[in-house]
Structure formats: structure tokens, C-alpha cells
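User: quick one, sequence for these C-alpha cells?
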């Protein structure tokens, strides 16, 4: 068999069982047909073979982000970004919101995303009154970076039917001043309920999905496990399938049956409807049934067994009782679903493990691969139960980089077992890395950097003993992600017969100093044997000369 495409002279990180590093790889149509030395692989070339000289660069399987929010990431790009470098003060943000309101028809939502109070010079949240000063004709919502808290104006509260007498929803807080007046700050389920009114139109969601897919591909991400968005989940999944069919979304999607609003209702709807995890094809598949059990690690609102270090009386928010969790998830398990839930604190993780034990005792199943999303604080006793149950963990090492300074303040010594990648590997617990973007940074290379170095943006070491090697981090962002979706026989490593989903870096990641991994760049992304992003025009072809040698000719974009 002759190759359509060959990569030579590189650092081909196969991520196979032995973590072999080779020089070259050959592709026919959308599958790998050979891996080996440059000399071996060049024997598969013809005058029509496209040959790319890697010149020592790293080529690895396409990154699989095992926890990311496609629709939220995309629709955020339609609103005001709070992470722009020029936004240094709240007044800078208010100017952006005023301009957005000026160009937005009255009555329609003005939205901002990525807000983090500590990055603004005032180091505080905006007030409802400040947002009212911007506009009382538009509902305004500012979403905190964690996607668990928002700040809204009076118009938004009016539309949502929230008054001073409105009780807190279960698992949420409508914040009030000591005198009982609404502050505009909505926490956890109260924030989620705002988006029953502040949701985007179907047209905006489709546009956002395409924008997000394009950004993912530029970052080397070829597959995602979508962790849900706001609003009615089945409608979002329908639009996702349509966008993939129309090739607006080109990344492969494993779609969790979960929503940030009323996730239990969506799970029940899908359980009753009939389809189960794994239904679909190489481009789109139904994923696990997903619930939320607790809150945000940087809120902080996660459910912990002991009080927060900075606030010992506070142990966070829990969404469901053990009985409710067992009932909802138990029904999904009995119908054949893979299960998962957002569980950050050790109390929430413990409850979820209790739930899985109950479900498996009633309906035993081999190779269920039930998951835990995040597993933020995971001490040794919980790790032992994870191993015994065979669960898959999706930690977020980039949180250590982005939030590590706050974690030290909030959780103290517990940071030694936060997103504990080293422990998971040593315990033979499969951990598939995810970014949780747009909650924090998208870049998988930054996630790898964080897992290897365990240093925060402020330069603090956070859980030093949890550092892992570069190769281990790459595996967590590739093969482990494929395993978490039951697809390790089809992708996640560069082996004969597997899908040709690749990423090429601008340098060798194995030779780069570990302290500068975050500075590496993706220069080419390939999905299904087709180049989808090529920053350096690496694509080349060869034509055979009369003397039998091969000459490289650059192809136009």
C-alpha cells in the first residue's frame, strides 16, 4: 500500500503502549498505515505522495480535551470579553458594556464573560447599581470566569422574576445586602437560572460553535468531550449534530448529556428517550449522563469535608442529597449510560463514589468507565475507591496555573492532593486532561506545562509531589482522552489503523526546557487526514525527477 501523505525527519510521539518515539509516519486516506524511520516510511512514497519534512519538530496525536464547553466558548466570543489586556479597571469594562449596549436593540441582552475580580484594580465585583447606570433598557449579565457566578442589573432581575422576597433556589444563592436589598450577584443555581432567560438564539449558537471549533483547531485540539451549556440540552445537541454535518464544527465531539441549568431534567429526558452513551460515529457520539454535585473551586463553593482554610465555617454548596443523586444516576446507569458528574470537593467526590457503588451493586456492569469531572480535592482514601471502582478522572491541571495562588489561600495543605496527576498515574487510575474552557485557558500546551511544573501564574509551587513527566502529560491529553470515551482503539495514539488526527509543534517538546513548554506553538493540525490549520505552510508535495530523487515543492494554501 502506497501513502497519500508522509511525515519524515521528526519527533513522532506515538503514545503507543511503549510511548515509542519514531521519525516518520505514513497516511492513506484518513488512517495511519505505517510508523517508523524516515528511510522505512519513504519506501511508501510515490510521485503523488504529499511529504512533509518535520525538521525535528514534534508530531503527536491530536489533543483530546476531555472537558470543555463548545457552545459557551463560542457564544462568549459574541459578547464582551473581560480578559482583554486593556481592561484594567471596572470603568474600562463599563465603557465596553456601554458601547455594546449602544449597538444592541433595546430589550436584548448585553453579556460579558471571563470576569475575575482579582484582575481588576478595584478587586471587587460590579454592583447592580453600576450596571443600571450603563442601561436600564437592556438586561445586562457579567459572567464570572468560573461560570458559576454572575452579576446582573435590575432589568435582568425583572425579566427573571427575581425580587427581594424571592427565596434562594436549591443549591444556589441570590445575594442580598444586610438590609435585604438585592446586590445583583447570582451564585451557583441562581446563576444557572438566569440563563433560562439570558440564553442565545439558535442562530447565535450555531455561529458560536463554528468560532469555537476554529479556535480549538488552532490550539491543536482534534476531539472534545463537550460538558454542556446553558439552556435545554437536547436542542443544543441537535444543533451540534447539524453543525458537524454542515462541517461548521470540524472537531470530533463526544457530547455529555448535561446542562448547566436543570441538568437532572435533561438526563431524565434522555434516559426516557432511548439512546445511550456511544451512539454515533467518528465525528459525533453521545457521551455520559452528567450532573452537577457542587460548585466552583475558585468561587469558592465546592463541597468539602472540612471547612475552607480561609473560612473554616464554610464547606461549600452541594446540589443533591445522596438519595437524589443515587436515584437520578442509578436510573441512567440501569439503562446503559456511562455516568459522570462535576465533583470538585472531597465531600462531593465521596458522594459520587457512593452513588457509583450503589448503582453497580444493583446493576453490575464490566468496563463501565464512569467518570468524575474535575475531582479537585482527591486524597488517598478517595483515590483507593476510584481505583477499586474503575472510574475515569478528568482533572484540569491548567487550574493550578490559573488559580493556584487562590487555592493555597482557600485550601492550604489540601493543594497537595488537588488534581493529583502523579497519584493517579501511580495508582493506575486513568486521568484524561481537560481545560474546562472557557472557565480558564484553552491551550493544551499550557495544560501540559502546568501538569509538569505545578506552578501558578504567581510563581508559587502548588502540590510539588504531583508533578509528572512531559510524556505522561501528553498521554493524558491524547490516549487517556480516547479511553475516557471508549475510543482508544480508534484514536489517541499514532498506530497502524488509527485515525490520522495529528498536531505538529514549532519545536521538539521533549528537548524544550520544561519551564518553557507553555511558550511552544501549534503550527499544524490535521483531522481525518486533512490539514485544517497550517500556520507555517508546512504542506509539501514531491515529484519524481529523472534521476529518481524526490524534490520538495511548497503547496499554496
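Assistant:
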Amino acid at each position: 500500500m502506497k501513502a497519500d501523505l508522509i511525515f519524515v525527519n521528526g519527533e513522532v510521539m506515538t503514545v503507543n503502549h511503549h510511548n515509542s518515539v519514531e521519525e516518520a509516519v505514513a497516511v492513506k486516506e484518513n488512517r495511519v498505515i505505517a510508523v517508523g524511520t524516515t528511510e522505512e516510511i519513504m519506501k511508501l512514497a510515490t510521485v503523488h505522495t504529499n511529504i512533509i519534512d518535520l525538521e525535528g519538530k514534534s508530531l503527536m496525536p491530536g489533543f483530546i480535551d476531555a472537558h470543555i464547553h463548545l457552545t459557551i466558548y463560542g457564544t462568549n466570543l459574541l459578547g464582551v470579553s473581560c480578559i482583554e489586556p486593556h481592561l484594567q479597571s471596572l470603568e474600562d469594562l463599563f465603557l465596553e458594556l456601554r458601547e455594546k449596549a449602544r449597538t444592541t436593540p433595546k430589550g436584548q441582552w448585553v453579556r460579558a464573560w471571563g470576569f475575575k475580580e482579582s484582575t481588576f484594580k478595584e478587586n471587587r465585583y460590579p454592583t447592580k447599581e453600576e450596571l443600571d447606570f450603563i442601561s436600564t433598557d437592556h438586561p445586562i449579565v457579567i459572567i464570572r470566569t468560573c461560570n458559576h457566578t454572575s452579576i446582573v442589573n435590575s432589568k435582568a432581575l425583572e425579566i427573571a422574576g427575581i425580587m427581594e422576597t424571592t427565596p434562594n433556589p436549591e443549591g444556589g444563592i441570590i445575594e442580598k445586602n444586610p438590609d435585604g436589598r438585592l446586590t445583583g450577584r447570582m451564585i451557583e443555581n441562581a446563576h444557572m437560572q438566569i440563563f433560562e432567560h439570558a440564553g442565545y438564539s439558535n442562530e447565535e449558537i450555531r455561529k458560536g460553535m463554528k468560532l469555537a471549533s476554529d479556535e480549538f483547531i488552532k490550539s491543536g485540539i482534534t476531539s472534545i468531550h463537550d460538558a454542556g451549556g446553558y439552556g435545554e440540552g437536547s436542542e443544543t445537541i441537535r444543533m451540534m449534530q447539524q453543525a458537524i454535518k454542515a462541517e461548521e464544527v470540524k472537531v470530533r465531539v463526544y457530547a455529555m448529556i448535561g446542562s448547566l441549568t436543570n441538568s437532572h431534567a435533561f438526563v431524565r429526558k434522555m434516559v426516557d428517550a432511548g439512546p445511550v452513551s456511544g451512539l454515533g460515529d467518528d465525528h459525533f457520539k453521545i457521551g455520559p449522563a452528567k450532573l452537577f454535585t457542587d460548585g466552583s473551586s475558585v468561587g469558592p463553593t465546592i463541597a468539602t469535608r472540612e471547612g475552607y482554610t480561609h473560612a473554616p465555617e464554610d464547606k461549600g454548596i452541594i446540589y443533591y442529597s445522596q438519595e437524589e443523586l443515587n436515584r437520578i444516576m442509578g436510573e441512567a446507569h440501569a439503562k446503559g449510560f456511562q455516568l459522570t458528574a462535576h465533583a470538585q470537593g472531597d465531600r462531593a467526590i465521596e458522594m459520587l463514589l457512593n452513588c457509583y457503588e450503589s448503582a453497580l451493586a444493583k446493576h453490575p456492569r464490566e468496563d463501565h468507565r464512569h467518570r468524575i469531572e474535575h475531582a479537585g480535592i482527591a486524597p488517598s482514601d478517595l483515590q483507593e475507591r476510584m481505583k477499586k471502582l474503575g472510574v475515569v478522572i478528568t482533572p484540569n491541571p491548567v487550574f493550578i496555573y490559573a488559580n493556584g495562588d487562590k487555592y493555597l489561600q482557600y485550601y492550604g495543605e489540601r493543594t497537595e492532593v488537588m488534581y493529583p496527576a502523579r497519584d493517579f498515574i501511580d495508582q493506575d487510575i486513568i486521568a484524561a486532561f481537560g481545560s474546562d474552557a472557557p472557565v480558564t485557558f484553552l491551550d493544551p500546551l499550557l495544560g501540559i506545562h502546568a501538569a509538569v511544573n505545578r506552578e501558578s501564574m504567581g510563581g508559587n509551587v502548588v502540590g510539588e509531589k504531583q508533578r509528572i513527566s512531559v510524556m505522561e502529560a501528553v498521554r493524558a491529553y491524547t490516549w487517556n482522552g480516547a479511553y475516557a470515551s471508549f475510543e482508544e482503539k480508534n484514536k489517541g495514539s499514532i498506530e497502524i489503523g488509527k485515525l490520522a488526527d495529528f498536531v505538529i509543534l514549532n519545536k521538539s517538546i521533549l528537548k524544550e526546557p520544561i519551564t518553557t513548554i507553555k511558550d511552544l506553538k501549534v503550527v499544524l493540525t490535521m483531522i481525518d487526514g486533512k490539514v485544517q490549520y497550517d500556520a507555517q505552510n508546512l504542506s509539501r508535495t514531491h515529484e519524481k525527477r529523472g534521476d529518481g530523487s524526490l524534490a520538495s515543492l511548497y503547496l499554496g494554501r
